[in-house]
Amino acid sequence: MGNNAMRAGLTGWITALGLPLLVVACGINVAQGRGVYERNCVQCHGDTGLGDGPFADKLLKPPTDLTVLARNNGGTFPAMYVTEIIDGHSRSEDFSGAMPEFGPGLGGEELQLGPLVDYLETLQR
Ligand code: HEC
């Protein structure tokens, strides 16, 4: 077998192995994000993000419908904006005091924020 053929074969293998691995890795990320969401957000934003959690009607300001974040941003999911709302870095003056700032508070692991935002992106309709 020539060197080129071997290289082509190798590339093929790497592609064949790597792609499913990538897909699986993303799935894990989203599943982790779903867990973070269930532990910290469902009470207010609801199981599917519509803003209809069990606490929702006890708040002065209704929790935002999290499934239309992309639609309300011209079709692009505003990942950066969403991240900074969740961790409290960029909230406007009149933002409801009901929603906690989750920066260091997501189960003590700040790293959870990324998967959480990835999960929220999957809720967009
Ligand atoms: C105690 C209730 C409560 C909890 C828990 C809560 N939120 Fe909220 N959230 C709200 C309320 C109320 C608003 C609306 C605030 C406003 O507009 O003043 C809001 C707004 C938001 C927004 C802003 C959307 C926009 O368009 O500005 C995002 C994003 C969001 N929440 C995500 C989350 C995530 C993710 C979690 C879990 C980590 C979470 N929230 C937990 C009550 C809550």
UniProtKB/TrEMBL annotation:
InterPro entries per record: Cyt_c-like_dom, Cyt_c-like_dom_sf
Molecular functions per Gene Ontology: electron transfer activity; heme binding; metal ion binding
Keywords (A to Z) from UniProt: Heme, Iron, Metal-binding
Transmembrane regions: none
Domain Cytochrome c positions: 28-124
The protein's name in its UniProt record: Cytochrome C oxidase, cbb3-type, subunit III
